[in-house]
Automatic annotation (TrEMBL):
It comes from the Bacteria. It comes from Actinoplanes subglobosus. Keywords: Membrane, Nucleotidyltransferase, Transferase, Transmembrane, Transmembrane helix. It is an enzyme of class 2 (transferase). One of its GO terms (molecular function) is diguanylate cyclase activity. Residues 211-340 form the GGDEF domain. This is Diguanylate cyclase. The chain crosses the membrane at residues 18-41, 47-67, 76-98, 110-131, 138-161. Its EC number is 2.7.7.65. The keyword Transmembrane applies.
Amino acid sequence: MDDDALLKRRRTIETAALVSRSFGIVSTALAAAGIGAGAALVPTADMRAVCWAGVVAMTLSNVLSFLGRRRPGSAWYIRCSALQVLLDTATILGIVVLSSRDTDTTTWPLLSLAIVVAALRHQLLGAMVVYGATSLGFALLVPGFAELSFLLGVGFLIAVITGTQSSSLDRHLEALNETRRALQHQATHDGLTGLPNRAHLAAYADERAGRPLGVLLLDLNGFKQVNDTHGHAAGDRLLHEVGVRLTAALGADGLAGRLGGDEFLVLLPEADGAVAARMADRVREAIRLPIDIGEGRTVTVGVSAGVALRPAGDDAGLDALTAEADAGMYRDKRGRTVAA
């Protein structure tokens, strides 16, 4: 999902990572260089080598964080995030292992930081994977550690708590996004046919302001008789099927919507008069085929159509174009009535 809530959460995580790692890069580099109070924590050449390697790893992770913050919705975000977790975990584990072996400084609580970071990025699964990796690595590389059982217990609790909370937050965000998408769809689509409503059609036309646009206003001939004879449920089925046929007839050539009642609107980007006329004929052919309205009954309806065209460079809005097409539609309807 690439919804706003998820993207904001990812940007927040990357911002926090950039700030915290930048502090870690500076403090670790100063300690490895023998500058400041942190220098006492790096008494051996091995520790200095690990610290410099950590600086490189954290710098690379910050580059990935910077890219992830700029493109939180990219296809490679998850892979880059997993690589950051790997680099952060290796850096923390290396520093903790060597400091535990070469100094009396208590640094093993830093392993919890790697677990928390993994939980934020990859929920419970990420937290448990990093917990297992750090616990196994520490146990193998620091044999005989007196507080190993306590370390394992604390790490497990932190992994479970932070992992479940992060997973719960992600589920909550997904539920909110699904609700938002449903509300947005309801606001921009007709509830009966599922077609775009007037607001959606207007936005579509406005996005193409100044570009050629063909507009077909369609009115069903015989719909009232279907409603009066067979009931509103049958009329609703008819309208839904008309929406399905309109969408199929258009394909990728335009956008069909319902204005209300038995009126439909078709928008044809970059269309001229010939294209609009061909589409009107195609729509009539599709809709006039028998329609199943349930209980073994079928009906047929016709279509009156009006056409309006917006040439390139014109700024006419959808209301003006619809009014023009409406006049044409009534002329077409009167002509068919006279012919009948």
